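Example record used in the benchmark description.
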Amino acid sequence: MITVRRTLAAVVVVLGAAGLAACTTGQPEPEDSLDTAARSEVSATGSAPIVFAFVCSDAAAGSSGSGSDATGDDADGTAERYTTYAAVWEAERTDCRAERITGTEMSAQQRAAVRAADGSATLQELAATCAERGASPWRDGVTTPDQADLAAGLVAYCPGHPDRDRLQEALTAYRA
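Model output (structure tokens):
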């Protein structure tokens, strides 16, 4: 009886293996289904949009200055480094500088913003000012042509800034 059970068990194992083999034959392997032609048509141009990190040294009152991507930057611990505008805005920083971390060419949005600023600010200055919140020019009125040029550049460069609408209203009032 034990011999019959062993024989039956061996037959079940062999049939199971044969069944599994039959289920998988004829199906392409996952890498066979990848479209390699699409990858071969993409060529690197060697350029990428400029991306900045922000080093900010003056936290707003009541702010910890510890955004989710912040790291200490200087010996006395007063500066923080951020890699996104949202993190700087959340920390409500008012004194930031922009440091290029990657990229070789301005994006279309960056070029448009620099053109709109009409010489009143460089791309790096626009990026640094865009990182700040609750400070000039975001909270002040626009009263001079230079302020208007800077405001125009910031409105073009910082569409997601929490104070953008206020700056747009100030610029519109100045131009009216």
